[in-house]
Predict the structure.
Amino acid sequence: MTATFIISGLMLTLFASGLRLSLPPSRLTLIATFTLSLAGLALAGLAFTTDPTIRSTPATWHGQLHDLSFVLLGVTLMPAMILLGLAFRHSAQWRSLSSYTWGTALLAVPTFSLKGAAFYIFLLAVVVWCEVIAFRLNRKIN
């Protein structure tokens, strides 16, 4: 799982760089892709070992970093998606994905903080969104 968090986080950061290069240059594009890059770094930070939820010992430094990374993922990923939805509206090639991006963010926000099956809805929504955007990015590059 540690390798998965690190690799996924780095891939999300590279994905943000690809989006920055393919979207029309603007301050909005820069902020949106920078925020998505921060989400990638937060995702990589989840590689720190978490502490047990129920414990009788103090929190460890790595458990605190894991928890902080989770919070940072939440406060960067959804705003990045909202900002990207705005940036997509400024490009004819990306405009059709604007509403889809906002809809995904609307679904992701409430399911992010829930435990159990609802959290898997968050994961599925974000992974599918990344794939849809990546397919468009790939078509634009090739």
Observations:
- The CA atoms of residues 104 and 128 lie 9 Å apart.
